[in-house]
Design brief:
It comes from Neobacillus citreus. GO terms for molecular function: 4 iron, 4 sulfur cluster binding; oxidoreductase activity; thiamine pyrophosphate binding. The protein is an alpha/beta fold and about 775 residues long. It contains 23 helices and 27 strands.
């Protein structure tokens, strides 16, 4: 970071502004005021807003942070590590499975001692998928070697983000720091906060960016980062890292005291609420502790000496302070929003018990309860029950049940859900009207389809009643493609709108077998399913028809983070279809930019303002990338050209059953995030095709053929005819953005001319 203005002499009680903001807003505010050099990021709920707010602030010229959109969380962690290795100040935010996806990188950064700050907006780790908050992601981070601060309120999120950088860069620490706060409680709920009016106050507090370490920044001073070590050296390395972690505890106290003088807000190692004479207490992380404090007041009015303990730092673990706080406590209930399966209690429970072992005089009875998983609310009445359990243990002198879950209920067999419709299979999905044959002379398939009205008797694969937005093009496009598929299908839906809107436990809109896996691994997962299916059949362990078709459905940017898995699946030659619906963004997490977002298009992370005009680089040509893997069939399709799409569906099935993998890409509408009217859905798709932005073609056995040429049909239009129907592109129609439109047109024309050349020459 460079200090943008002249240094400001810090004074006690520096001027602050009072407002109402959320935790995500305050994380972004702290990052903007610090003015980090780099943020590598990838959207995942509920941390996504942090990058969105920073993009909005960037568009307004409020900071100079270089925001780098990654292809996935693993990539974002790599971006951040690479930037930190130069000595740059680096920032990130993530949640849940995104945190787990990058976790391989986290010990690398800690072990090579490069500071940075990452906000972990805690959320349930799937499966099954649940996007609400618990601490199952946080607990995976306990052994990564990162310092971990925990923030109960939006105010604490702001303050700890400022403190975190100073701790990370301290000469006795030199470790990356996580600031963890609760998803959808602290992250999204607005509360009164104060922040420094002048960001120079913040910049002076964190100080100048250290430069006296071995960074990759001067070619005249070459360094080697991360050299291979043998066991003796690695032992020394980890010992030094361990010492640095414990140093971070002392540095936290120093930084906290210094920050208290500046802000008037003090963060001790433990937040102790009425613990001076407490006999019963709860130990709770983050927002739940705030809910329990009101209950403490009520119990105190009844003469019960109750208290609440909540740590502000859990790595290093504050064992000494916990022993001191529990010296006179007779019963403690540790509530945790995660479990350590099979360990008879979650992680912090065991760490507290371990800490108490070093105090031979301590007689505290420790109970452990797993609660609030998957965002299950924690109310004052729940805190009352926790205290009642602790009081019961105190009175009896022991805990009848030391470990248990809280809030789970037994199932009722009488209320089991029954299918609303009779499952359809086999002949129900065979129209007998589609004919696909290989032409031996041309080595291409010949497909005959009936008039589309004759295929309307073929039942839909997805039942009505799903939760898609009005005008969503996903299911119209998928169902039209499925009209070309005869017989049974097994689908895998990667995370995204199509999956989320059709499966909300205990309900499902899928009429045939469907499974789910995450963005980054859908293709590999389905390839395992296909091969297991074939092997079970070969061994005679299952008896099923030969014409089942396996289809992976991806979209909402899934071919960014899932690109590696898709390419690997293609190269291995599994007999399946990979079908992408392209809505030009990460729509399921709130319309963030993906690599399929076109140049200049507005999303929630490619905003429009005085310093930027939408996405700054061109869209990824996924179809050509997949064609380069030399799989037997690749195609594009659109609901606006139904006959073309149904034929390609039939071809896709034939190749997937008889030769090998298929990839197809459908452009579909997203009225909500494209800011377009529902009634223009088909028109928008037509103009995208007629402008040659989304050409309709296929690559069959390596030979490219354009299946619809708008120039030959005299229907070629400018991309501006497409732009005018969407709010996300209206700014491109302004005269001052003509240079962007011209650049866009040039790129479209270049790709179109190359495609025509391939169409005309089978060797290209």
């Amino acid at each position: 970071m460079g200090i943008l203005e002249e240094k400001l002499t810090a004074q006690v009680g520096a001027e602050q502004i009072s407002t109402f903001e959320s935790g995500n807003e305050m994380a972004a505010m702290a990052a903007a005021q610090i003015n980090y050099h780099i943020m590598g990021y990838f959207p995942i709920t509920p941390s996504t807003e942090v990058a969105q707010f920073l993009d909005q602030m960037k568009a307004r010229g409020e900071h100079d942070i270089k925001l780098i959109p990654a292809d996935g969380e693993h990539g974002s962690a790599g971006i951040c590590y690479g930037a930190a290795a130069t000595g740059a100040r680096v920032f990130n935010a993530t949640s849940a499975n995104g945190f787990l996806y990058m976790i391989e990188q986290l010990p690398v950064q800690a072990g090579t001692r490069f500071p940075m700050v990452m906000n972990l907006v805690t959320r349930a780790v799937s499966g099954p998928l649940d996007i609400r908050g618990d601490h199952s992601d946080l607990y995976f981070g306990l052994n990564t070697g990162w310092v971990i601060l925990t923030a109960r309120t939006p105010q604490a999120v702001y303050d700890m983000n400022i403190m975190a950088l100073k701790i990370a860069e301290h000469s006795k620490v030199r470790l990356p720091v996580i600031v963890a706060y609760d998803g959808f409680w602290t992250s999204h709920q607005k509360r009164r906060v104060q922040y420094f009016k002048d960001r120079r106050v913040v910049q002076q507090f964190v100080g100048e960016c250290p430069t006296d370490y071995n960074f990759i920044r001067d070619p005249q001073k070459p360094v080697t980062i991360g050299a291979h070590m043998n066991g003796e050296d690695l032992m020394n390395n980890h010992f030094q890292q361990s010492e640095a972690m414990y140093n971070a505890g002392e540095v936290f106290r120093e930084v906290s005291a210094e920050y208290a003088k500046l802000s008037g807000r003090e963060y001790s190692v433990l937040d102790l609420y009425k613990m001076e004479d407490a006999e019963v207490a709860l130990f709770l992380l983050n927002s739940a502790a705030e809910s329990a404090k009101d209950v403490v007041d009520q119990l105190r009015d009844q003469g019960i000496k109750a208290g609440v303990i909540s740590p502000n730092i859990i790595r290093p673990f504050p064992a000494k302070e916990i022993r001191e706080a529990l010296k006179n406590v007779k019963a403690l209930l540790v509530g945790e929003r995660a479990d350590s399966y099979g360990a008879h209690g979650p992680n912090l429970t065991h760490e507290i018990k371990s800490a108490l072992q070093d105090d031979k005089n301590n007689q505290t009875i420790v109970l452990s309860r797993v609660f609030g998983m998957g965002g299950k609310d924690f109310y004052a009445s729940d805190a009352h029950e926790f205290f009642n359990m602790a009081i019961d243990a105190m009175e009896k002198g022991y805990a009848e049940k030391p470990f248990d879950y809280f809030g789970h209920v037994p199932g009722n067999p009488e209320k089991i859900l029954k299918p609303v419709i009779t499952p359809q299979q086999g002949d129900a999905y065979k129209s007998g009207l589609i004919e696909v044959k290989m032409d031996e002379e041309t080595n291409k398939l010949k497909v005959k389809i009936p008039p589309l009205r004759m295929l309307t008797n073929k039942p839909k694969r997805i039942a009505s009643g799903h939760g898609a937005c009005p005008g969503c093009g996903i299911f119209g496009g998928l169902e039209l493609f499925f009209k070309g598929i005869e017989g049974d299908i097994v689908t895998l839906f990667q995370t995204g709108c199509a999956y989320v809107t059709t499966t909300a436990y205990p309900y499902s809109s899928h009429k045939q077998t469907m499974m789910h896996n995450l963005f980054q691994n859908g293709a590999a997962t389905l390839s395992g399913t296909v091969e297991a299916f074939m092997e079970l059949k070969r061994r005679g362990e299952i008896q099923v028809s030969d014409d089942a078709t396996f289809v992976m459905i991806t979209g909402d940017g899934g071919m960014d983070i899932g690109m590696g898995s898709a390419i690997g699946t293609a190269l291995r030659g599994h007999k399946l279809i990979m079908l992408e619906y392209d809505n030009e963004g990460y729509m399921n997490t709130g319309s963030q930019m993906s690599y399929s977002t076109p140049l200049g298009h507005m999303t929630s992370t490619s905003g429009v303002g005085k310093t930027q005009q939408g996405k700054s680089f061109h869209h990824k040509d996924t179809v050509q990338i997949m064609a380069a893997t030399n799989i037997p069939y690749v195609f594009t399709g659109s609901e606006a050209f139904p006959q073309d799409l149904v034929k390609k569906g039939a071809k896709a099935q034939w190749y997937a059953q008889n030769v090998g993998p298929v990839y197809g890409k459908l452009l579909i509408t997203c009225p909500l995030n494209w800011k377009s009217e529902d009634r223009y859905g088909t028109k928008i798709l037509e103009e995208a095709v007629n402008s040659c932005f989304f050409p309709l073609y296929e690559v069959e056995q390596g030979v490219t053929a354009i299946t619809y040429n708008p120039e030959e049909k005299k229907k070629r239009v400018s991309v501006t005819e497409w732009f005018k129907y969407m709010g996300k592109t209206k700014h491109l129609l302004k005269e001052e953005n003509k240079h962007l439109v011209d650049e866009f047109e040039r790129e479209v024309e270049k790709r179109w001319q190359r495609l025509k050349a391939k169409h005309e020459n089978p060797w290209l």
